[in-house]
């Protein structure tokens, strides 16, 4: 039997393992995890403490301890914006109160599990390693990747077709894709979907069944400047982000712009990129060295520009889903032009404000926390297997928002911008 201080199946050990794995997951140093705030503690923020909800000023809002079981739904609300003119002088005001309305969205939670084969008696004889210790980081890594990648896919409203062994979320044609994602992956709403257009940006557009994008429409400083102008004129732009300890949050509001490695490399080749890196470092000094401002990152015109862990990529001939109408969630299809060939592709970038993504974490009855751990002997003690599981669900936050003139389906804290990128073919 593998060398261990606890026997396989020991309940106390399995709870300890689950709690430790959950804590490690919540503290992991990944770009996606940095986009969620900390759970409230003590008496501060009593309502949030009761619900165990992270800050709504961050792109990912987590809700823990739902008090419900596997497969249950969580509901969250938005108070629609209110507009009115003042009633002046002695004009009659009674009965003329402005109306209020709530919108709601929902997400489901479900369990996700990764089993890891620990081998058998003979493999233990051949190897002096403690197979349980080797298996734990393997399982942890799989679950961490699942949580980050599923969050990224929901944010972007697409899985794309880039694929290799590092992906634990399959492409959307896979038979289990919908179940793995738990909640529906929603293509961007019409008012939150943009394309690079020469030196600027435009709302998502098609041309004879193809996406209206050329192989020279790269991510540049002009893209950032143009998008800033667009957001300044939006009637309801995504909320700004406020990071813990950021003293400049109110005076110099920012949003997070996640770009693919290929988009970032084009951006980094722009003249003066080092000054954008310097701006990020300067902001870090005002934000208690928050890790989101450090590393491969630039700060420009109100955006923190960071690499996403995996590209959301579409190759020549691939289908992209989009919403053709402001007041409908019906999704249409468009293809990447054949002219992109093997040397170019389309990568999706995503701009995140507060409350972009909701993530619900339900307590397992096995461990009392959202993670659970299982170990099992099989075949009369000849073989061993361990399993890591979680009970969670993730969904992009979307509301049918009344903007005064009409209702528009709106991805509340998310805006995507598609650009061309050079690539090395469709290889893995």
Describe the structure.
- The protein has about 425 residues and is an alpha+beta fold.
- It has eight helices and 21 strands.
- The strands form six sheets. Strands 5, 6, 9, 10, 11, 12, 15 and 21 form an eight-stranded mixed beta sheet that branches. Strands 1, 4, 16, 17 and 18 form a five-stranded mixed beta sheet that branches. A two-stranded antiparallel sheet has the order 2-3.
- The longest helix is centred in the middle third of the chain and has 26 residues, at about 130-155.
- The radius of gyration is 24 Å and the shape is globular.
- Mean pLDDT is about 80; it is low at about 1-5 and about 40-50.
**What count of helical segments does DSSP give?**
8
The backbone outline, from C-alpha atoms, is globular
Please give the number of β-strands.
21
Structural class: alpha+beta
Unreliable segments of 5+ consecutive residues:
1-5, 42-50
Mean pLDDT: 80
Rg: 24 Å
Span from first to last CA? 38 Å
SSE order, one letter for each helix or strand: HHEEEEHHHEEEEHEHHEEEEEEEEEEEE
Keywords:
428 residues, alpha+beta, eight-stranded mixed sheet
Give the arrangement of secondary structure elements.
Elements: H1 11-26, H2 46-51, E1 60-64, E2 73-79, E3 102-108, E4 110-120, H3 121-126, H4 131-156, H5 177-181, E5 193-197, E6 200-203, E7 206-207, E8 210-211, H6 221-233, E9 255-259, H7 261-268, H8 273-285, E10 297-300, E11 303-307, E12 313-314, E13 319-323, E14 331-335, E15 344-352, E16 357-361, E17 371-378, E18 383-396, E19 398-402, E20 407-411, E21 414-422
Parallel strand pairs: 1-16, 5-21, 9-11
Antiparallel strand pairs: 2-3, 4-18, 5-6, 7-8, 9-15, 10-11, 12-15, 13-14, 15-21, 16-18, 17-18, 19-20
């Amino acid at each position: 039997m593998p060398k261990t201080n606890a026997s396989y199946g020991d309940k106390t050990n399995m709870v300890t393992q689950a709690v430790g794995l959950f804590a490690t997951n919540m503290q992991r140093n990944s770009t996606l995890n940095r986009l969620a705030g900390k759970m409230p503690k003590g008496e501060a923020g009593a309502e949030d403490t009761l619900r165990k909800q992270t800050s709504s000023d961050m792109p990912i809002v987590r809700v823990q301890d739902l008090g419900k079981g596997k497969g249950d739904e969580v509901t969250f609300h938005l108070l629609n914006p209110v507009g009115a003119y003042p009633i002046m002088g002695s004009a009659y005001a009674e009965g003329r109160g402005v109306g209020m309305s709530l919108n709601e969205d929902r997400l489901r939670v479900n369990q996700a599990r990764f089993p890891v084969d620990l081998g058998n008696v003979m493999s233990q004889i051949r190897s002096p390693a403690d197979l349980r210790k080797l298996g734990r980081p393997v399982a942890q890594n799989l679950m961490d990747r699942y949580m980050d990648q599923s969050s990224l896919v929901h944010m972007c409203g697409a899985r794309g077709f880039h694929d290799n062994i590092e992906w634990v979320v399959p492409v959307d044609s896979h038979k289990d894709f919908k179940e793995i994602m738990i909640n529906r992956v929603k293509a961007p709403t019409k008012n939150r979907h943009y394309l690079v257009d020469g030196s600027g940006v435009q709302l998502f557009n098609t041309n004879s069944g193809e996406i209206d994008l050329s192989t020279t429409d790269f991510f540049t400083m002009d893209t950032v400047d143009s998008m800033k102008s667009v957001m300044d004129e939006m009637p309801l732009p995504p909320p700004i982000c406020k990071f813990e300890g950021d003293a400049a949050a109110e005076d110099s509001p920012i949003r997070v712009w996640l770009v693919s490695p290929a988009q970032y490399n084009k951006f980094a080749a722009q003249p003066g990129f080092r000054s954008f890196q310097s701006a990020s470092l300067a902001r870090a000094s005002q934000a208690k060295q928050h890790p989101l401002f450090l590393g491969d990152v630039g700060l420009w015109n109100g955006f923190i520009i960071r690499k996403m862990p995996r590209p959301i990529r579409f190759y020549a001939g691939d289908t992209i889903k989009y919403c053709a109408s402001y007041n409908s969630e019906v999704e249409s299809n468009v293809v990447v032009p054949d002219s992109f060939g093997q040397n170019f592709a389309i990568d999706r970038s995503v701009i995140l404000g507060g409350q972009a993504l909701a993530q619900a974490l339900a307590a397992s009855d096995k461990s009392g926390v959202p993670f659970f751990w299982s170990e099992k002997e099989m075949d009369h003690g000849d073989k061993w297997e361990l399993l890591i599981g979680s009970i969670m669900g993730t969904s992009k936050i979307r509301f049918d928002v009344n903007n005064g003139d009409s209702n528009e389906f709106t991805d509340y804290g998310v805006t995507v911008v598609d650009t061309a990128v050079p690539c090395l073919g469709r290889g893995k």
